[in-house]
Amino acid sequence: MTFKFRHTYSSLLAESGDDVRVVQELMRHAKMSTTMELYTHARMHKKREAQSRAVDSVVLTARGEAQI
């Protein structure tokens, strides 16, 4: 149960925009790679939002439209 909480806690901290070093220290990990590779996972809606922004940028550029 603690393991699931730590994954959720780390992912929520990262999603809320907290600095990776802050997340690492709050998780008490010696290495940032432990925090980022084992505990922090991107949530699906955040992945979709990022992908949509990238696609929109490419489409607008291809059309010659100004990006906002």
Number of domains: 1
Termini gap:
44 Å
Strand content: under 5%
Cα-atom radius of gyration: 16 Å
Average pLDDT, rounded to a whole number, is 81
Number of strands: 0
H/E series: HHHH
Task: List key phrases describing it.
4 helices; 68 residues; 74% helix; mainly alpha
Quick synopsis:
By secondary structure, this protein is mainly alpha-helical.
Textual characterization of the structure:
Helix 1 packs antiparallel against helix 2 and helix 2 (20-27) packs across helix 3. 74% of the residues lie in helices and 0% in strands. With 68 residues, it is mainly alpha-helical. The chain has 4 helices and no strands. The protein starts with a helix and ends in a 5-residue tail after the last helix. The model has no long low-confidence stretch (mean pLDDT 81). It has one domain (2-63).
